[in-house]
Amino acid sequence: MRLRFLGTGTSFGIPVIGCDCPTCTSADPRDRRTRHGALLEDDGRRLLIDAPPELRIQLLREGIGHIDAVWFTHCHADHVHGIDDLRAFSARAAAPIPAFAGPECARTLRYRFAYIFDDAAAPPGTTRPELRLEAYHDGVPIDVAGFRLIPIAVSHGNGTVFGFRAGGLGYITDAKDVPEAARARLRGVRVLVLNALWRGKPHPTHLTVEEAVEIARDIGADATYLTHLSHRVRHAELLESLPPGIEPAYDGLVVEI
Length: 257
What we know:
This protein is 23% helix and 27% strand. By secondary structure, it is an alpha/beta fold. Strands 6-5-4-3-2-1-14 form a seven-stranded mixed β-sheet. A seven-stranded mixed β-sheet has the order 7-8-9-10-11-12-13. Strand 7 and strand 8 (147-156) form a beta hairpin. The longest helix has 11 residues, at 209-219. It is globular, with a radius of gyration of 18 Å. The N and C termini lie close together (5 Å). The mean pLDDT is 96.
């Protein structure tokens, strides 16, 4: 099984519009971060994790010509507003793409993108994504594109985000905390992915680097990759400062599991 990081930045992306900070003006390509997305691959099967605004650019960059399903972690704009790019896949396959979201996000998707899910809202003769949307539930295993996933609920401010466990991989993004019930489901993974916004001052909806490191140590994966990073941290400096077994991800990174 292989994890491909499509986008590892926050909702602003990096470079941030109008910013001339050291990260936004860095010549290191690892400091150029598009909005969050990833791809889980195994034996030709591909599960897309989220549909960020740069989805088309990410997929072209990685040479991805098909996906088998999409998993939405939650419905914030930086995770779903590339949803229209999915029409390239459903149009080519002439069949709906299986899509999975938590119950609240599934309702939001149907409302926010009515032209996709409501036949009466789509003008005749237009092309739209064809998605077969199904809700998943915390802790209930579900088969998605041949992958066995266990949804894992974590807090994100006043909302809930769903990560997952797939065999030896644990994947959490946009968490403010990873409660003990979630940590218990993640123990024993070989590779862990955690969000880590910046260093120092706590954020109301995201883990800091320090908080993510503490959680990673408690879960004890062989390797932990930090994602959803802001322009307040530079890749090279963060890599040098992190303890062994923990490192920042970057757009295009591929990890074998």
